[in-house]
Amino acid sequence: MQKPLQITFKNLDKSEHLENLIRERVDKLDQFYPRLIGCRVVLERPARSATAKAALGIAVELDVPGRPKIVAKREDDRRDAKGDSLKLISQAFDAAQRQLEELTRVVSRDVKQHENAGETGCIMQVEKLEDHGFVELAQGESLYFSREAVIDNRFDDLKPGMVVHVTRAIRNGSMGPQASAIRLQAGVQSMT
Known about the structure:
Radius of gyration: 20 Å
Number of helices: 2
Number of domains: 2
CATH superfamily of the largest domain: Ribosome hibernation promotion factor-like
Order of helices and strands: EHEEEHEEEEE
Largest sheet: 5 strands, antiparallel
Helix content: 10-25%
Strand content: 25-35%
Mean pLDDT: 83
Strand order of the largest sheet: 7-6-5-8-9
Low-confidence stretches: 110-116
CATH topology of the largest domain: Double Stranded RNA Binding Domain
CATH architecture of the largest domain: 2-Layer Sandwich
Shape: elongated
Distance between the termini: 19 Å
């Protein structure tokens, strides 16, 4: 990693055991995705109330080059809080690793293609005031698209990092290669 690991304990005594576990999990993420820029981990226990067990929450934030921040959060429900912080930490880091794996598949052009589905791309830039944007295809090519190319009038829902289905236009436009249709993938919001 380019930046040092940040570990923060909020409303919770600092634990060398938990800190070591977090460092081990971050090292594994760094080995899996060597381009990782930085990582911030926050362990937080909400203020205790007189009648309820104190819950524990964890947030893992990963900085990766050229993409939105990856965030994985987990929290014990107060009624289910059993003090199993190791399980909670593992779940948060497992979720962060799954997001890194998905990012790796998109970047390495290993996204599964379905017949007649067009190509898979990742929104790189959206200029909402100018009604256009750019999408990067799995092969690394960048295509221009206009507001009108976005299916179901969902242009305003687009954000950088979102995975979309792309239909390439037959002819280049004034901005070069372009998409004739952009469709948001069902169930996939973004790479964050």
